[in-house]
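Section 3.1: Structural characterization of target chains.
Under the original work plan, the team committed to producing a structural model for every single-chain target entering the pipeline before any wet-lab resources were allocated. The record below documents one such target. The sequence was received from the expression subgroup and is listed exactly as submitted; it comprises 195 residues.
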Amino acid sequence: MKEIIEESLDKAISYSEYRTLVADLLSENKSTGDTQSEALFKYSFLNDRRMKRLDKTSKLTGETVEKLKEVKEPQKWLVLTEGWCGDAAQNLPVINKLAEENPNIDLKLVLRDENLELMDNFLTNGGRSIPKLIALDKNNDVLFTWGPRPSIATKMIADYKEANGVVDAKVKEDLQVWYNKNKGENVQEDILSYL
């Protein structure tokens, strides 16, 4: 698996390069990934706007900033993502702020559909759910993984699916409302629990 991780790291891009890639594709009426559709383009467009807003408005708590200072050894945070993914749009700006807070944390992103071999080593309940953060030490050994959603959102979706048998438009709207109210605090709490 280490070889797969290293191959993906060789192709990885920075957060700002990812944001530029998504914007450039949108200017061509495209989304990331091999599959192109009107729906994926619309999701990507909406997500690009969300990320612009969250890049400006996301704030780390004081506790988060203090805990991040404790990371003394270099870490690479490799995140599998796609521009059309709503959960990625809500969580990547916060993950980026976390990484920016400590020079020992190097955030890199790869597109899921171009890195399926990596993705298939980090499935969530058998699915290729994203975003998926893979934290690596200086030897590229896995320290922890996180994703695709913060713990509260994960429970919210699981409870809804258990009660209703499906994940439908209603719960997806409820999830977006929750993300807006939570302001990235649950992502911070989850990732801090691994540090």
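DSSP finds nine helices and four strands in the chain.
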